[in-house]
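Q: How would the structure tokens look for this protein?
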Amino acid sequence: MTENQMDARDAAGQVGNTIADQAAHVTRETADQARHVVQDVRERVVAEAEDQALRVSKQLGRLADELGEMAGTAPSSSMSAGAIRSVADTSRQAARFLDERGAQGLLDSARDYARRKPGTFLLGAAVAGFLVGRVAKSATGGSQQQRPRSGAVPVAAERAGVTPEYGAPLTPSAAPATPAAGVPHVEP
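A: Here is the predicted structure in token form.
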């Protein structure tokens, strides 16, 4: 082997080592940056959760005050006054809990309860999910009946006074007073 070939081989080996060192450095830097991003996101989520817990706590306190005023103006013999006082007291306790422990305390309490009573926790979560779904559906108007698009004629079962069984006579009380718009009236 000539001296030029040996120098070229040594230079190629040094370039390979330099590339490997740089690749390892880039990998370490990328991992460090990813850890910093994850930590930053985690800190922001925790801060936002604590902020939301503080807002909820203040709202619960206001609600408890308003309910307390309502209970104070109600006659003392009223059954609703006692129920309103009970809800006001529970709201105050929840507000105090959130003030003292924050969102992390609420999460820890939920975890502890789930460990102690998993069946009850799952049942409560299922009921809460169902209720949230129902509220969301009613808020978006999902329970409204869809109307046919323009130009579409409803089938016989969807029109008032039309019997879906063909050939069955309509009774006078079931006959439509006026024909549906765009649908010609045909006498039998």
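The chain has three helices and no strands.

Residues 3-73 form the longest helix (71 residues).

Upvote if useful.
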